[in-house]
TrEMBL record:
GO process annotations (BP): microtubule-based movement
Entry superkingdom: Eukaryota
Family: Belongs to the TRAFAC class myosin-kinesin ATPase superfamily. Kinesin family.
Coiled coil: 92-172
InterPro entries in the cross-refs: Kinesin-like_fam, Kinesin_motor_dom, Kinesin_motor_dom_sf, P-loop_NTPase, Vik1/Cik1_MT-bd
Name recorded for this polypeptide: p-loop nucleoside triphosphate hydrolase superfamily protein with CH (Calponin Homology) domain
Keywords recorded for this protein, A-Z: ATP-binding, Coiled coil, Hydrolase, Microtubule, Motor protein, Nucleotide-binding
Pfam families given in the database record: Microtub_bd (PF16796)
Source taxonomy: Eukaryota, Viridiplantae, Streptophyta, Embryophyta, Tracheophyta
Molecular function as annotated in GO: ATP binding; hydrolase activity; microtubule binding; microtubule motor activity
One of the record's GO cellular component terms: microtubule
UniProt organism field: Zea mays
Length: 454
């Protein structure tokens, strides 16, 4: 740190570096106090910078005045020389030379004047910069003073509380001392009457005084322990608050990682569905109806891997048996839940943004309506349509904190190569049939769901 007596000889750049160093130190301390010696040194440095700026400004002003006088003098000489131009050729040549010299000197003077003006602007900028530094220093000093005053008020408040506690304890001790004095007086009066019991009373009094002193010591120790406990509690609260902050940060990181893992799981799930096949064909064998002969079945074998062997009693040899291969074959005893279990993962792919189409194909009476809708409205007999919609709403409800879904349903009828909108409010539009050849492929299913993800 530079001494205050050596400020006059120190360069301006070193003074500015001193001010910046003090500012950096005050910023690092933050809540610390700035010593009076540092404040005094800052004031001296600022005064010295202002004095130097003022001296340089005065010097530049005097130089400008001198330059203007010289310029006026040279202008008068130029006028005289111009008047002498009408003389002889030799005099004209000499005048022209002198005029050229004067013009050169004038250009030099103008360059010096420009440099002086640049110096003035630079000094003004340095002065503004120093004034900003001074204002910032004043603000920092005021903030430090306010912080110091707050700390003083807190310490004074704590001191007053401790004084009140001590006064109450002193009053209690004085009260006990008054009681002990009364007892002493009683002992003295009793000693006058009964000299034999004097020693015993004196011993009792002395023991009582010792007990009172021990009580006072215990009270002091208790007050110190209370202060230590309060300090320990404060440190414990600070540690708990810091631990809570770190725990919250860990929770935030875990939430971010959860969203990343969730996105990766969705991607892997859909990749698994694509590996299983974008087009899957399942076969469900309808059980015999009442009144039908169960012995007239044409199914010889149903494999676990999707094999189905059909026999034709009207043909012999190899032509009498044909083997078909599906993704899976459901037996006549398969429930609605078992049929939907293989299709259920595709519902989740719908909510992940993939197009899915599920339809039943077969001749009349083969069980298409039974599989897609179900025989009744009970939850156990629900078909693929009801179960798919139920899963759509369940999954969208579970993702409501991360995604917002909009579900729309459209139902059309294809009959005799004509398409009708069964959910349209316009009766005329419902009756008017659309030509199936010009109908979009997206209406090829009997029912369709639209989902908008946001």
């Amino acid at each position: 740190m530079m001494h205050s007596n050596s400020l006059d000889n120190a360069p301006t750049q070193s003074l500015i570096s001193v001010v910046n160093g003090i500012l950096d130190e005050s910023i690092e301390r933050k809540k610390g106090e700035i010593p009076h010696r540092v404040v005094y040194l800052l004031r001296k440095v600022v005064q010295e910078i202002e004095r130097r700026l003022y001296i340089q400004a005065e010097h530049i002003r005097s130089q400008n005045v001198i330059m203007k006088r010289r310029e006026q003098k040279y202008c008068s000489k130029i006028k005289v020389l111009e008047m002498l131009v009408n003389g002889t050729n030799e005099e004209n040549q000499m005048a022209i030379n002198r005029l050229q010299i004067v013009k050169n000197e004038k250009s030099k003077i103008e360059e010096r004047r420009k440099l002086s003006e640049q110096d003035v602007h630079r000094l003004m900028r340095e002065k503004e910069h120093s004034e900003n530094i001074i204002a910032n220093l004043k603000k920092d000093i005021e903030a430090m003073n306010r912080l110091h005053e707050q700390q003083l008020e807190q310490t004074e408040r704590k001191a007053k509380e401790m004084e009140e506690q001590l006064t109450t304890k002193v009053k209690e001790v004085e009260y006990l001392l008054l009681q002990s004095k009364k007892k002493v007086e009683e002992v003295e009066t009793a000693s006058r009457l009964k000299s034999q019991l004097w020693d015993k009373k004196e011993d009792n009094f002395q023991s009582h005084m010792d007990n009172q002193q021990l009580i006072i010591k215990d009270i002091r120790i208790l007050s110190r322990s209370c202060e230590n406990d309060m300090y320990a509690l404060q440190m414990q609260w600070r540690n708990e608050i810091s631990n809570l902050g770190s725990g919250l940060k860990c929770l935030v990181d875990a939430a971010e990682n959860y969203h990343k893992v969730l996105a990766e799981n969705q991607k892997l799930f859909n990749e698994v569905q694509e590996l299983k096949g974008n087009i899957r064909v399942y076969c469900r064998v309808r059980p015999f109806l009442s009144g039908q002969d169960k012995k007239s079945t044409t199914i010889d074998y149903m494999g676990e891997n999707g094999e189905l062997l059909i026999s034709n009693p009207f043909k012999q040899g190899k032509d009498g048996h044909r083997l078909f291969k599906f993704n899976k074959v459901f037996s006549p005893f398969a429930s609605q839940a078992e049929v939907f279990s293989d299709i259920q993962p595709l519902i989740r792919s719908v909510l992940d943004g993939f197009n899915v189409c599920i339809f039943a194909y077969g001749q009349t009476g083969s069980g298409k309506t039974y599989t897609m809708s179900g025989p009744s409205t009970s939850k156990q007999d629900w078909g693929v349509n009801y179960r798919a919609l139920n899963d759509l709403f369940d999954i969208s409800l579970s993702r409501r904190n991360a995604f917002s879904y909009e579900v729309g349903v459209q139902m059309v009828e294809i009959y005799n190569e004509q398409v009708r909108d069964l959910l349209s409010n316009d009766i005329a539009q419902r009756r008017n049939a659309w030509d199936l050849e010009h109908f979009s492929t997206q209406w090829a299913c009997c029912s369709r769901c639209k989902l908008a993800l946001s």
